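[09:14] KT: can someone run the structure on this one? pasting the chain below
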Amino acid sequence: MNFDIELTSTPITSHAGLAFIGEQLTEAKFEHHMQTLVPGPTRSDRIPDADLAKTMVGLICCGKPYFDAVGDYAGDPYFPHVLGLSRLPSAPILRQRIEALPEEAGKAFRGFTTRLLARHPQQLTEELHGEPYCPIHIDVTPMDNSGSAKEGVSCTYKKFDGYAPIFAYIGPHGFMLDNQLRAGKTHCNGEGTLEWLKQVLKRAEAASSTRRLLVTDAGHDAADNLLLFGQTADTDFVVKRNMRRDDLAEWLKKAKRQTSDQAREHIDCGACGYYGQGELPLPGHPEQRLRVVWRAIERQASPDGQLLVEPEITIEAYWTSLDWSPQAIQRFYEKRGTSEQFHSELKTDLDLERLPSGKLQGNQHVLDLGMIAYNLLRLLGQQMLGSGLVPGRKSQSKRLRLRTVMQNLIYMAGRWISHARQWCLRIFEGHGWAQAALSLAPD
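[09:31] RB: done, structure tokens below
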């Protein structure tokens, strides 16, 4: 080696970007709400519940969502200072106290999330067909926790043991509005889903005054859900229809009657698409009729030209309150696949697939704190993009992946200096993302 390696007493941090996380976490209402979870007098040396929550959010933002990781920062003055902690908890205390938080703690975490989103309404709105909408995508994604004996872990529809949480993402960039951790065997529209959907719609109304557009798959094609969506003020919906018991050939005939030769869609050399629309009664509620649009695909040959013995029929139908054309509804729903990327960022970028607690309620709290970390990282990424200072082609992107924010902002190196009772964080001016990071600093 042509250089020496030495230890220094000068505080140097490898996660300078946590300063911006700590700035966003400073909220008196959140701290007060957390204090009310433990009524009555407490020990003077007791670490506040709000500090435990902030510690966990900080760890998740660093990609370390497990309790033992707090030991990595035991001798680091920077980590507790920028997160506003009175004292850094040990790993056993962090685990015990997070798992012991009452169910009401979820209201504090969701309240903070809703207020955070409400402060940035421009991030939640997009223009669709000339009208501003606040899209809400609801989806279930399994979390693989195979080989563990955690409470609630059971066989998911992906045929591995784990959890089956449901998520609601709001806005075009995928901020998380709400979540619910559920046992792996729970059906996507299982018990309690309707109440959870009501909660999501209330939180969406509190977060944005823009008209909401709720989108979900066929797993939530239930009359009670559709009635809820239709009766909620300032809310439109697109819900994929479950076609399991329908005669697909009949739907194809109806679409052919409504589609002219000029409007017929050429899928590939062996398939054509036809579009239809109409009104159908809700199952169990014949007096209630809703608009249904659909695309029928008739395949006579495989994409490589091999003729099929019998045509294959595929129907993609949607319940909707929108007056858009069937083609526009189809194109809009196809973009819903982006929500799968949001799941991926949560489970891989934040490493939250294998939750750290053995208790279901403890893992729910960790997932709620993960929601806060997820939204803070997403917000920082969007704010840097808006500054126009993000280097390279990323400045042309609509959204920064969480991993990109973590690698270039959270993991940014800095020098932590104390002088004249003042603290200063110095970042190397030659760092490509230094100017983008400075754009986040409060005036």
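[09:33] KT: thanks! The longest helix spans residues 360-387.
[09:34] RB: yep, looked fine to me
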